[in-house]
Amino acid sequence: MKSFKLEGALREEVGKKSTKKIRKEGKVPCVLYGGEKNIHFESSVKNFRHLIYTPNVYLVDIKVNDKNHKAIMQDIQFHPVSDDILHIDFLEISEDKNVTIDIPVILEGLAVGVKEGGNLYLLNRRLKIKGLAKDLPDTLNINVENLELGKSIKVLDLKFDNLEILTPKNSVVASVKLTRVAKGMAATEDEEAEEPTTDTTTTTEQEDK
After folding, report:
1. CATH number among 2.170.120.20, 3.40.50.720, 3.40.50.2000, 3.10.450.50, domain 100-193
2. Do 119 and 153 contact (CB within 8 A), yes or no?
3. What's the pTM value of the predicted model, to 2 decimals?
């Protein structure tokens, strides 16, 4: 998995007054937990731009007062009106402990059902997985070439090396459905097939009489 470097400064004070001051200075209050003790730190809001506003997931190398920590972003709070970042929680990780994280899903290949006139739908853009940090991929790649029209791929159909999928097994990840245009054409064809045919022989006989 790709890594992201983040530098921060240890917070001298923790509280509402201190937090408001930090935000006014263009910084984000953060907490790193999961280690020997919780570490409260701050970092410029500019430092988070490429970590948050992206579909990618990163392992974060956090440097606070010359001490390095490996972590994943666990939770983020936004202002309900301005969407400004209010607070971020990071979970410290180690090489010998499993990590639970949401990984983006990528569909690969042209599905058989699409060739037959269907549309491919990605219904779960991320899956929750558990594994060691060294085994975490950037994306979960799923081949859909054999996915037929009207069929779907569920979590229970998937398997990734050294990873456990925590998303419910019956959750649909991707499916191929008939398009509205194709449905309309099929309905029209059915209606035309059901229309009664005119008996030309009988009509001609009646006219002769």
Report:
1. 2.170.120.20
2. no
3. 0.77
